[in-house]
Specification:
Blueprint: H1 3-9, H2 16-33, H3 38-43, H4 49-73, H5 80-95, H6 104-113, H7 118-144, E1 153-154, E2 157-158, H8 160-185, H9 188-198, H10 208-225, H11 230-256, H12 263-279, H13 291-304, H14 308-338
Antiparallel strand pairs: 1-2
Helix pairs in contact: 2-13, 2-14, 4-5, 4-11, 5-6, 5-14, 6-7, 7-8, 7-10, 8-9, 8-10, 9-10, 11-12, 12-13, 13-14
């Protein structure tokens, strides 16, 4: 991704579409439910302050975790300021692109402009993707044992479509992570040969150039990270685990701030978020805008009742709109920092 293309994605003007889309879907859901009332809105002004504080703490810890992981990956060559900008603008890039696209390409651009070589930037993003996907595979594995069967029941009926989509997503990420792990940590050259052979088949030739570039990126990543000490990977894995756990605990705390939640319900909320994450990968709208609100209502209305859509809006403010606003504020400052300030 060159600077011009990246800055088209990292564009402050792009915040309006996901905001309007998300709020329009939320407004429609409010209208259709007919459950919005002044009394419910008034009740939101009297939360359990302990859980509300924990919600805010979860937001901070999540970003600090991402920043610290970048520091570890770069062997502390990236400053805290650089990590802060990359973390927030990476979230911003994810929020303004379809969920399945994500902010990976934007992150490579951000890291390279913060002083890392292009190859190292690619390597960091690839390894970050591998460990993030590993968390999903670990959390999603409970569904393989039947723990998520009750989650696939929507409106009292088993949704075979949701179940099939979840397990298809799980299978895809398992195969993807397996291939990438072998390529990065075992031997990238056989993987390059396999990719080249597969894309030599007639109808797959259109992806041959992309496969070649991917194989080059994997080789660069392998050279960058192979031979790192176990303590390095222990820090990366632990940081990833805690960061993603905090990400999901945020919703638990937000719900508990307004509704009494039992321990069993906390576990159910956790499992529903894993399934929702898979459903939000559908490349329909930037950052899953509209999709997240729709599935939130489907999954949590039996638990939250009249509070459902209001808490859904608060949840999206904490996990989506927040980064659109922060990105719009910080992007011009970052552009000035890495471009204008470096001019003679």
């Amino acid at each position: 991704m060159d600077a011009q293309e990246a800055l088209k994605t990292l564009n402050v003007k792009k915040v309006w579409f996901p905001i309007i889309c998300g709020l329009a879907i939320t407004g429609f859901l409010f209208y259709r439910s007919g459950k919005i009332s002044l009394e419910v809105i008034t009740l939101l002004s009297a939360p359990n302050w302990y859980y509300l504080f924990m919600t805010l703490l979860a937001i901070v810890l999540r970003e600090v975790g991402h920043m610290y992981r970048l520091r570890i990956l770069s062997n502390h060559t990236l400053s805290w300021t650089s990590c802060f900008y990359v973390t927030i603008l990476w979230e911003f890039g994810t929020a303004v692109t379809p969920s399945v696209v994500g902010g990976g390409l934007v992150a490579i651009f951000l890291l390279s402009k913060e002083g890392l070589s292009f190859g190292r930037s690619i390597a960091y993003v690839i390894v970050t993707g591998i460990v993030d996907n590993l968390f999903f595979l670990l959390a999603g594995s409970f569904g393989l044992g039947g723990a998520y069967d009750s989650i696939f029941v929507i409106a009292g009926q088993l949704s075979s479509g949701i179940k099939a989509f979840f397990f298809s997503t799980y299978a895809f990420f398992f195969l993807y992570n397996l291939v990438m792990t072998i390529g990065v940590f075992v031997n990238p050259k056989p993987l390059k040969w396999i990719l080249m052979r597969i894309t030599s088949i007639g109808f797959l030739k259109r992806w041959r150039r992309s496969a070649y570039q991917l194989s080059k990126d994997i080789i660069v990543t392998s050279h960058e990270f192979r031979g790192r000490f176990p303590i390095f990977w222990s820090k990366i894995l632990l940081c990833t685990l805690l960061t993603w756990m905090v990400r999901y605990v945020l919703m638990n705390c937000l719900m508990a701030a307004y509704c009494p939640i039992s321990f069993g319900q906390h576990l159910a909320i956790w499992g529903r978020q894993i399934v929702m994450w898979a459903l939000m990968l559908l490349p329909v709208s930037p950052g899953g805008s509209g999709i997240a609100e729709f599935w939130f209502q489907k999954f949590f209305e039996p638990m939250l009742g009249d509070y459902t859509l209001l808490i859904a809006l608060l949840w999206r403010i904490c996990t989506f709109y927040l980064y659109l606003v922060l990105g719009a504020i910080l992007l011009p400052k970052w552009i000035h920092r890495v471009f204008t300030s470096k001019l003679p």
